[in-house]
Here is the input.
Amino acid sequence: MSYIVLARKWRPQGFDDLVGQEPVVKTFKHALSAQKIVHAYLFSGPRGVGKTSSARILAKALNCEDSTDHEPCGRCQSCTAITEGASVDVFEIDGASNTSVDSVRELRETVKYAPSGGRYKIYIIDEVHMLSTAAFNALLKTLEEPPPHVIFIFATTEPKKIPATILSRCQHHAFRRVPKHTIIAHLKKITDAEKISIRDAALEMIARAADGSMRDALTLLDQAYSFTNEITEQELHSLLGLPEAEIIANLSQGILSGDISATLSIIQELTDRGSDLRQLTRELVEHFRNIAVVKVMEDPGRLLEFSGEEIEHFRHQADGVGVEQLTLLLAEILRLEGEVRNAVHPRYVLELGLLRTSFVKGMTSIDTIMRTLQEPGGQRQVPAPASSPEKNIPPAAEKKTPPAGPPKPADSGQGLRKDHLWEKLIERVDSQDHRLACKLSEARIIDLSTTELSIGFNGGMSVLADSIRSRSSVIKPILQEISGRNLKLKILSLPNDESKKDKKRIKEEISAEPLVKDALRIFEGSLINVKSLQHDEKTNE
Here is the structure.
């Protein structure tokens, strides 16, 4: 077969050919120049970023007969044999096919023999995390103290599955995803060399779909080149099922505005065109992540690889939604992506998930509701529990109009707001006795009439009641001066468990509300705490 796929044809043959792994390349070159070669390496990272290629390049550099600046020449017998996979001193082992203890035992026997031609005998074990626990244990002693002519190089996409005893015996190098702009530049270099006609927008689409994997990018480019000699965005859309950027933008705008009709229409259009809904959901997750980054960062360009115009588009969408709503939307879409990925009927799952996202638009945070209710001009309309007989009482019957009579004097006890009176009282007492004012501030007003002010200490603060009573001679003159009335001061010690009982009762009543039940069911939440507005009224008014 004469044709060689691009991923193999353009496989890196030297350190300088590695794309997007500059820190790893610098480490290898410095280690070779300083002769700091260790007996075991571990290369970890996502697929297609150059782990196995780096292992081969390192093997070439260690056994090269004519290296220049510690870069393998690629022409000597050793380099040629390693490139062709025919070297007798470099063994490439598939960890998934050699998981047993017997395979490791065979390896332990072969490491004893000296290399045939090169300086080192090198074992490259790909996907090493696939080895069994028994195989890892059998490898421990050999890995810790191998013969001086043996070097192990492990490659894996899942380093967390490797036992700590193995990790501690290896020098770990983490390979990172290749940035999108680096993939585009490398693809441009390859397309120019291969004389492939492709537009820049199509290159960007391939780089975005590759998700940081250079091998995936080359595979997609190879597939597109096999489909047509002139690669455009439209050709990629039809070939790979990649959603158009405009469709993603329109779909995200419909989600942000809560327009479920528009979002379902877009899903219908994409389904008729045969688009991959799983890929669409992945793109949607990335799009909302980009909106979130623009929303919370002053300089999103440090994290996003987009032009200034594209970032402004994200910012325009982010301006119409709060951080709380955006967080809920992103969490819901992330969950939706996993559901669609494993769904038998992805369209129905996607439509149901988008329907759930439409509920977020009409939501208001609890803090905003509480602030609104606590505003001086705000009306506190707390729905009565379902079991309360007052729920069906008409508004006119809730509050009876007092009979007409002579107007009350302006200086009546109710003429002064309770909270204002309480603040003034504590402030004046503090000017005379700071410790007494601190104790007094722990109480709360229970009742205020034209003749009496009742205050109470709740829970553990009840011990302060006697102390306040003993100093009532200081408080009463100040109270009379502030109120302009001869008010009596009544000091009460409330039961320790009153607040707990109130909160428990309120929590049970709120949990029984149908609206609360629906919210907990939709968002799979739980009721952690309940704040009583009636309690606030007794405290502050």
Observations:
- The chain has five domains: 6-174, 180-240, 245-362, 414-496, 499-540.
